[in-house]
Amino acid sequence: MSPLRIAVALPHLGVYGGIRRFLELGRVWVARGHRVALLTPRASGQGEAPWLPFDGHVGDFGELETAAWDAVLCPDPKLLLELEPRGALLVYYAVLEGAPAMREACRNADLVLANSRGMVRYVGYLGIQAAEAVGGVNLAFFRPDSPDPRPLRAHTGAPVQVLVYGRLSRARKGSRAAVRAVERAARATRVPTELTLFDTIPPGASEPKLGNVRIPHRWVLGPTQERLRELYASADIFVSAERRAGWSNTAAEAMACGAAVVCTRSGTEDFAIDGLTAAVSWHWSWALARKIAPLLRDPEARTALAISGRARIGQFPWERTADRIEAALRARLARKVSAHA
Hints:
CATH architecture of the largest domain: 3-Layer(aba) Sandwich
Structural class: alpha/beta
Distance between the termini: 20 Å
Number of helices: 12
Largest sheet: 7 strands, parallel
C-alpha cells in the first residue's frame, strides 16, 4: 500500500500526555514510511520543538494550504473548526469527554476517532459513530527495573512508596482527591507510607501547593522522561482519580512499569479490570482509600496486581493504535475516491 501523508494539527508541543500520543504515533508512522508532520499555530523555528524524539516534520498551519495531505488529525475541537485542509480528510480524534465544541467538531469532521472504549460510547451519545483508536504505551521505554527492587523492599519494613500525578491546576485530574485518599488509607492502616507527586509546570508558574498533608510527601517537578520512568518503576502503588479522561497515559505508563494501580474508570476501562489488573474505584477520596488500604497492608496482593496489570497493558503498544488509525483512514479515503468515481 502507498504511504500516507498525515498532518497533525496541535495547539502546542508542550510536555503533556495528549501531545505524547501524537509524538508516539508519529514515530511509528515515520518508521513505516509514511509522511508525518506536526503542525502548530507557530513555526517550530520560533522556539517550540517536540520533547520526545521525532523523525517527522514540524511546522505551522500554513502548510495545510501549501502542502498536499491525505488526512489532517486534530484532537482539539475548537481548533478543528478553524481548519480548512485543502482536499484532505478532516479527522477529529476525540480524547476528552465534554470538550468545548465537541459536538460541532464531530459533525464537521470527515472521520471521528475515539481514544478509548469509553470515548466511543460517549461520542455515540452525541449520535456520532467513532472508530476505535484506543491509546497506547511505549512498552520498550516504560518498563520495570531489572531486577525489580520492590518485592524485596516489601519484606524489609520500608515505607510503601505511592505515586500520584500532581496536576493540581486541572480539577478533572483528581490529584487532590488522590492525595487525600492516600493520606486517609495510610492513617487508617498505620502502614508507613511515603507519597511522591510529579508534574511539569509552565515557565513562570508558581509551584503547586497542597496544603496540610499529614504523611511524608515530596514533589518532583519537571522530571525528564527517564526520571519519570524511574518514578513509576520505584512506586509500589500508583493512584489516579481522573474524571472525564479519554485514555489515562499516566495510569497506563505506571502499570507498564510494574506499579499496582488504583484508579477510577475514567480513561482506564480498556486495561483496568477491578481486582484483576487494577483496583478500580469511584473518584471520591473515601472510596479510593478503601481500595488503597488493603494494598498498603498486603505486599503480596500489590505484587500480584502489578504482575497482572503489566500483562494486560502489554496488549496496548502504540503500534496497535497506529494500525487501527491507518485502517480507518484508508477505509474513509477509499469511500471518498469511490464517491467521486
